[in-house]
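Model: Ready when you are.
Researcher: Fold this.
Model:
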Amino acid sequence: MAALSQDTLVNSSPLSAGCTERVARLRSIIISTAPSLCVERALLITDAYAQHIAEPVVLKRAHSLAHILDNMSIYIAEDEWIVGNHSSAPRAAPLFPEYCVDFLAAEIDQFAQRPADQFQVSAPVKQAILEKIVPAWQGRTLLDRAMAIMPEDVATAQKIGAISGRGNLTSGDGHIILDIEMVLNLGLRGVIKEARGALAELPPYEAESIRKRPFLQAVIVSHEAAVRFAQRFAVEAEKQAADPAKSPERRSELIQIAEICRHVPEYPAHNFREAVQSAYFIHLISQIESNGHSFSLGRLDQYLFPFYQADIASGALTRLQAQELLELLWLKLFSVIKVRPWDHTRFGIGYPTYQNVTIGGQTIDGQDAVNELSYLVLETIRDIRLTQPNVSARVFNGTSNRFLLECARTIKLGFGMPALQNDEIIIPALLEKGVQPDDAANYAMVGCMEVGIPGKWGYRVTGMTFLNILKTLELTLHAGRDPQTGITLLPATKDLARMDSFDDLYNLFLDQYRFYARMSFQLDSVADLAIEEMTPDAFTSGLIDNCIARGLNAKAGGAKYDIISGPQSGIVNTANALMALKKVVFEDQRQSTIEILQALDANFEIPGGEVIRQRLLGAPKFGNDYDEVDSLAVRISRDYLREAEHFHNLRYGKGPIGGIYAGSTGNISANVPLGTRVGATPDGRRSFEPIAEGVSPVHGTDVSGPTCILRSVSKLPTLRSICQLLNLRLSPNSLADDAGLERLVLLIRGFIALKIWHVQFNTVSTDTLVKAQQHPEEYLDLVVRVAGYSALFVTLDRATQDDIINRTMLELG
């Protein structure tokens, strides 16, 4: 490897962050680049679909991916070591018209003026979208197919805001970890060889061969295209190396880049440099193939460590060189960006792509898996301080204090990483669902805080249809009628005024709750069927065990495991609201249900309304270790899980282990838009305010400190989950000295002991956040934790910013 810059920078300014001058320069450029739209992919796939119109859809899409990879613009920017671009320019979002085009036509003039996630649209791009892309795809998209097969009542349930699945219907699945380790050790040539062998062994006259043959052919076509894509960068590097204007040092680098791209990912990686480049190519191509997000890199510190260790031992690599390569990889991840319809964007504000990297945890035999690369990842994200990758640290009883302290030092900096995931509950939860022990021990985080087994799990672990539980309570209180639209899908079986007990009320709520849970499962199936029919992905499926052996893509049952969930949103608000009704109406008899309903319908703005609100607010609240209200949250969670036991996904019985539903509270930033669909509620919340995110307490109601929050959360039926979200906001003063960091380590030890799934921290002061709202130009790279992911604060809409500011600031002491 050519010598890299040896002067480590002092991070006096966040805009000059990076371990070397090279990283700092590239970071400064990328963070100052305004996001835009790129039309290249859309034009290329439009042409390819026309050329392969009669092909089976999986083969058509493979040829289309090949056409894109063979013809899209590529570039190698000055100073780059890791190469590969997602679109024609950094931070330019490619378009995926096969999924949805209606929003492109409807929102084309608003992209640059959005409240958040803005995109610049040049005149030629606008013209191509309106004149070529939209007309070519109208009526032929994934969304069109989904709407054609969607039952009317399911569509209506979306309209009133009880469920939401817009993201499922307008983009690819994503939420997956490919078998990158296998590629590093075998190369794509090995995958192609396996697919050719499986194709040759297909019985010629069996009916199923008709289905399997095009899939296996598609794997070969798409992976051969991936090899050619890498080699295009080799040619470009050689071209640039021949430029006499380049410095001798840069020409040497470019020659090495060419050599690497000719070798990987086609063949096994020889060294750390090749391994990093190969991993990035695989990760990148999967995101060119599909518009899904949450493509994650798995346990990077585990599969890259043998290459790192060997290169360090031989002297072929220094620690600083490895650090620089990782930071350059993070810049490439940050440059990957996608555009979504605004109504989908609101569920994940801040340009998130949820590209998760998992570090730490344990080995298959239960030993501490933390290695020197685990520490180096923490050092790199402290250096570069960007929103990608979304780093998660696995912890368990055997995790060393040294590693926990390094996590604490990183958390202290305020950009929300690493999030912590608890082996003590996650591994048992996976075993409970049928995952084999060796696989369970090797889990990694997907997207935000859901889990999957690298290279063995199907699409979209969670992130299916959002169920708005607080909305179902609002419907209950209005006899099944939606106050905002006047629509009634399930009339109540008993009048609100005639309820004799809290159990009567809960049973009415349970009727609505189960009804809309079933609607959410139905919407999942609509999305799954449409995606299976319209957008099967051969490149990604070829890197998932057992797709090639079964001759099935991951959406058709090819994966070893396939367990999914849609986020159950509003559990905490609903528990608080039911507790308030139980206390105020049925126990203390201070108000009638009708009086409370009148106050809710008026947003508490009637005579005596504020008195009623204060009585409701005075009831016990989740997050303070009060068993009575915590038990209601447990009851609500269990009732969903009982209902889910009766339903399966479309892959059930087709080969994968699972095919079932699990619990999830990973609602990302959807707590803000979901709240806009719900009027005032009996927990004291005013109309259309955000609901609580995940299992985090409602802002301002967690008055007993972080330990009590953990105790409340620990009572939930987490073993049945596949994802859980807990946000804690800590005072920066609590972490100002070593004693504060030691207290945070103790809190993390408590988190582990209580077997809570996930926790993440915000440590930015309210004063800083308010100043960033007022003077965004001075805080361009202020990163905060939103909900399962981090984002640049100034890119968030005002409602999401306010939601973060209003989180309770907790002290450690």
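Researcher: Now this one.
Model:
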Amino acid sequence: MARLPFDPAPPGRPTAPEGFMQAAGLYQHGDLNSARRILKQILKKAPQHFDSLHLLGVIESRLGHHKDGEKLVRQAVRLNPQSADAQSNRGNILRELGEFEEALASYDRAVALKPDYANAHNGRAIALMELGRGEEALASYGRALELAPNNPGTVYNRALALARMGRNEEALAGYDRALAIAPDHLNVHIDRGNALTQLRRIDDALAAYEKVLVREPAFAPAHYNRGLALVRAGRFGEAITSFDRALAAEPEFAAALDARGNALMSLSRVAEALESFERASKADPRSAPIRNNRGHALMKLRRHAEALETFDRAIQLDPKFAGALNNRGNVLMALGRTDEALKSFDKAIAADPDALDTLANRAAAAMTVQRYDTAIADYEKVVAREPDYPYAPGNLLFSKLQNCDWSSFDELTAKVREGIRVGKRAALPFTAVAISSNPVEQLKAAQTWLADVRLPTGTPAIRKHEHHKIRLGYLSADFHDHPVSALMAELFERHDRSKFEVEAFAFGPDDGSAMRARLRKGFDAFHDVRMLDDAAVAKRIGELQIDIAIDLMGFTENCRPGILSQRAAPVQALYLGFPATTGSDFIDYIIADKNVLPETQQANFSERVAYLPDSFMIGDATRQIGAMPSRTDAGLPERGLVFCCFNNRYKITPPVFDIWMRLLKAVDGSVLWLSGGNPASMDNLLREAQARGVSPERLVFARRVEKLSDHLARHRLADLFLDTLPYNAHSTANDALWAGLPVLTCTGETFASRVAASLLRAAGLPGPVTNSLADYEALALKLARDPAALKAIKDKLAANRMATPLFDSDRFRKNIEAAYEQMWQRHLCGEKPAGFSVPA
């Protein structure tokens, strides 16, 4: 705050009360408390003395008693409204109180009374900046500098205003001008460094901070801002050292503790970050941003209940804190409370409509509850405002595929695939698997995502355990009622316990299902690690001396690759859940067969390939098939050929759907039987059928059934399963073949597009495998018109069902166990992972 200007009383002005000149002198020398005592004594005798009221008000404010100070100066202004000094100083005090509109009005009165009052123009500019009126503020600073060109405070304030407006080059020139006038002003050096940081001139910024630290080695603000510059440069370890030096000088420096925590988060040192945020919260318990950061760390540590409580506290401190509302939504999602999460995202967007992160998070939440219309609308807003927003183009495309909304399908698919090819964050790895027919693109998408998320790393474990059995650890979020578990349960039960110990690491929900109970019983040990963070799970796997960790997730929903990225086990393999490469250096092997992953494609996989001799996919031969329902019960017409596809919606693409519609038009009385889905997707499919000249009644949607046995039984009502491309039926094809329903597929170049062919060949049925969509359509039509040929395939499938490798559980078990033994033997011999084939 500007010091009160003081001039001797002019002729004709009443003489000041005794003691006032002494008080004014004490004020000028900085002895505020002594001056305050004298002024209070004066005002007891002369309560209407203008100069005493004015000076005491300024002193009270400088002592931090802003409300008392404003009241006193306001009284002084009433006594002498023509005093520009009093009007200006009242503006200063109102500014300290955050009452910027009233402060501006006081400054305006001051400059009206005294147009050449430079300090009032300067204060007016500061108030205008706080009101968001930047250009007017610069004009006011300009007027102040016309009146007092060499006032370093005004030059400095104008530079700060330019920096706040993002005009850092101009701000830098202003700081240089201020230093030319007052070279010893340490804060100017620091803010000059901050402008250089914003301009990404990090070395110059560090030099600016060093100029301060040479003179004041323990000056905490310089160390703090130096740390922020190093964070901007991605030099997080050095930044932490700077923050530590700031804290050595000022242990309760809340901003430095907070920034230190954020730097530790960037290094995935989450537990240490949390400790730093805890200290910051104690130092500044009213800071909502610090609480928000603490909650983020707790969420990373999977301490979700504590994180939610912390975000709630941040929102209590600042009810319109969009960042905390957004994070609250994220933690509610992690807790499975999606409806509450969506409400929290709604509030965050209301508080900050321009927050793209929140829009994207709300879209992702909407997808989990099949509100694809909401997801599409949000992703479209994100992409419209920032076309390359991370993964938004791919998520938009995937949402539209889930909704069977094919508007702009070709254009959007081309954009996403081109983005993947040039290394943009255009699509998540799983989306790339779903939409791309090119294994090179899928590898690129995985590598781009891994580089972006910066998973924690670890040194490959070299352990030669003393135990006699190989310890297998299966990792999944899907150890409940899920297709992966339905396929794998029998293998877990059948593993040869004379050679293997088999343990589960489950990080998904416990749905209380019969499958969950079966899995718990089928493993030697079942570890529910939902509440442990990745580092803790990796540590647990190491402590349990797991020899081979088998990831059943890859980059599918709810995956946790950060566990194996820390090298939890000496040998790490990928199996079943993700039909593509991870692009990582921490997965040693992928388990496949030569149908799904030809040797010519190995260059597009970061993993070494462990080839099984038959199909890579297991099938649970204990699955029960219920009583076949009637066509009427299933919603099918009594007569006519039934084409069937129970694949997920996102696998249905316009080129394949075009073929299906042509088949319906060519085969009288035929229908297409699809799995039920969200109402919008069914409406869209019916509309697309009608647009292709097919009556919507020709599409039948299967109702959801609770029991797998009932679902398998109704397959027998269909005549031919029509596969999709570029993402085949996987467990869906396995179910169809187990139920005796022939599958017609078309192979592509990717793993995901070759799975059905692998299953058919392992079932002794290479005939329904085609290599182009034209051949696929022709064969489908031929079989539809030739009941005898279709029956021959069905009969052969029935005969082969228990006589071919596909459903020979014991044969599969021996093959995959042979693969595990070879992986482990290479490790024991000190050899690097290498591809191999298990002999038939």
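Researcher: Key takeaway?
Model: The CA atoms of residues 671 and 698 lie 5 Å apart.
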